Amino acid sequence: MNAEPSSTIVQTFSTGVALTTRKLTLAYDGTVVISDLDLAIPAGKITVLVGSNGCGKSTLLRSLARLLKPTRGTVYLDSASIFKLSTKEVAKRLGILPQGPIAPEGLTVRDLVAQGRYPHQSWLQQWSKEDEWLVEQALAITNMTVLADRSLDTLSGGQRQRAWIAMSLAQDTEILLLDEPTTFLDLAHQIEVLDLLYELNQTKGRTIVMVLHDLNQACRYAEHLVAIAQGQVVAQGAPDQIMTEALVQEVFGLESRIIQDPVAGTPLCIPVSRHR
Predict the structure, then answer these.
(1) Model confidence over 186-218: pLDDT tens digits?
(2) Which secondary structure element, helix H or strand E, spans residue 96, and what is its range?
(3) Where is the ABC transporter domain (predicted)?
(4) Distance between CA 211 and CA 195 in Å, rounded?
């Protein structure tokens, strides 16, 4: 593409943006999953939610994105209740990559990524060079340019995941929520995606909230770690301040040893097997 990035493309987002919850209670089919949760997501940082399966991480992320309405309490985007904002206004400021997203059959990668620009369209502002540039940049960053004209149906699981991440990047929001973004990816591509998200945070000030299963990756990339057990926040803070053997036991029911990662200098969790 020959289009040059405009100032809105290269801007650094304000660090005043934040998500907070107040007395947030979430339920599925009458079963409470999250109860009376007060949580502040630091603006301009990478926050990672960790916890065992079924603890409420993904449920919380869906509510932060306004995909799940609380039974009590609310989520605030800056100082406004996110449930009182219009869908388009939220989509311009907050992007989400849920677990197992589904696209219409026959959609190409480029078509999917272009959908990230739809919240910015109106009858006064149609598809622009800036939109095109952002789509091409998102494809390039995720190494999907060569597959741009392929149908999503023909891609591997890892390739599809990168296509969805590209769509989230094309949306160009100040807040990005990702539910297990490394699912289906091999180790090399996991690090590639996490490095990309880290770079977006460092260079453009994106506020990023992720659910990750790999505790060591969470400690390496998070500035703010939130450990959840049974729908409650057990601990939160910088990984090197809260990641302890006692916390791993409480959250995961697992005996472990915590040492320093020899590469990153962050906490490294070594599980203790019953058989070794």
Answers:
(1) 898 888 889 888 988 898 888 999 999 999 999
(2) strand 94-97
(3) 19-255
(4) 15
